[in-house]
Design goal:
By secondary structure, the chain is of the alpha+beta class. The chain has four helices and eight strands. It has two domains: 13-28 and 88-175, Roll (PH-domain like); 33-85, no CATH class. Helices cover 32% and strands 33% of the residues.
Length: 186
């Protein structure tokens, strides 16, 4: 892999060898989720102070006071994102039969993937740029080329090049897939 250099384990990741399979675990907690937590605390504390100032319970505001219900949505979203960031992990289980990707304990919609290992021809990592306004944000993904020529996303939205390359390297190493240079890969 890139001159067969063995990559070090990236931050917020761990590699577990279970004997019959390996598991790569990626923790989601990063500075974005920590900021969400801070904003959620500030928003919820500020909202509860506002409610107590007007001598209403949160339930009364939610059920009766339609003018102030919009305060709940940002607080709910920020709180949910904070919980997801602190608790969730991505589990990549690689066995001779298949690669399974699961997000736990809070599963994300349409995010679990199973790939038949006997159908894998090659793995590669790639950078994707997403523009929020004028500033690009880079995300990284691990892709699989199947024996029938298909191209499938194995795992996306990784935050660093090191994470993508490490996952690619460990899967190829375990399944004895020869690393071949691909057009557009990292």
């Amino acid at each position: 892999m890139r001159g067969k250099l063995e990559l070090e384990l990236p931050k917020r990741m761990e590699l577990i060898n279970h004997g019959t399979h390996i598991e790569i675990v990626r923790k989601w907690l990063n500075p974005v989720y920590i900021l969400c937590t801070i904003f959620a605390i500030i928003w919820c504390f500020g909202f509860s102070t506002y409610i107590s100032y007007w001598s209403q319970t949160p339930l009364e505001v939610w059920l009766v006071d339609t003018d102030n219900q919009f305060f709940y949505l940002p607080g709910t979203v920020l709180t949910f994102l904070s919980i997801v960031g602190w608790l969730s992990r991505t589990h990549i289980a690689v066995s001779p039969a298949k690669i399974s990707i699961r997000h736990r304990p809070i599963p994300m919609w349409r995010s679990n993937v199973d790939i038949d290992a006997s159908n894998l021809k090659q793995l590669y990592s790639k950078e994707t740029k997403v523009y929020y306004g004028r500033r690009p944000t880079s995300y990284y993904g691990v892709y699989a080329i199947t024996n029938d020529g298909g191209n499938k996303l194995v795992l996306g939205r990784l935050e660093s090049e090191e994470q993508a390359l490490y996952i690619e390297q460990q899967i190829e190493k375990y399944l004895h897939i020869k690393d071949v240079s691909m057009k557009g890969e990292l």
